[in-house]
Amino acid sequence: MIPAAFAAVIQSEGEGCLYVVPSGEFPCLEAYPGTVYRQMAEGQVPNRFEGGQQANRLFFQAAERLELKGPGRITLPKKFLKYFPAGEVRIAGMNTYLELWHPAWWEEKVGSALDAAALPESEV
């Protein structure tokens, strides 16, 4: 389930779909609204002299288009289920896209960094 606030924006401004790709940096999936993904694709005119082709190839080749179903539901392809061994998904908003995490991996990779950045307790 995509949170209602995100789903409403994806439905109205994101062509009603998400493009889901494995993250190149973390053990999670990145989910881009259709309009954002299309803008990214349009900005990637291949130029074999500038490099970066392998990263682009891996990103665009792995993408799966997922339509929103009902009130913010998506069905992940079987190839992506290995990211969620317990069948649970934690969704993190990342400005123009979402990250889909196994909750334990989120705590391991991101939670500790968030804890370190927490504000100190105020003195009363």
Weakly predicted, low-confidence segments: none
DSSP E strands, number: 5
CATH architecture: 3-Layer(aba) Sandwich
Shape call: globular
Output the strand order for the largest sheet.
3-1-2-5-4
The CATH C-level class name: Alpha Beta
What is the gyration radius calculated from CA atoms? 17 Å
Distance between the termini: 41 Å
CATH fold type:
Chemotaxis protein chec
Number of distinct helices: 4
- Which strand-content bin applies to the residues? 15-25%
Order of helices and strands: HEEHHEEEH
Percentage of helical residues?
A: 25-40%
CATH superfamily: Transcriptional regulator MraZ domain
Number of structural units classed as domains: 1
Structure in words:
The chain has 124 residues and is α+β, with helices and mostly antiparallel strands. The chain has one domain (4-116): Chemotaxis protein chec (3-Layer(aba) Sandwich), CATH 3.40.1550. It is built from four helices and five strands. It has helices at 4-13, 34-42, 53-62, 103-116, and strands spanning 17-22, 29-33, 64-67, 90-93, 98-101. It has a five-stranded antiparallel β-sheet with strand order 3-1-2-5-4. The longest helix is centred in the C-terminal third of the chain and has 14 residues, at 103-116. The mean pLDDT is 86.
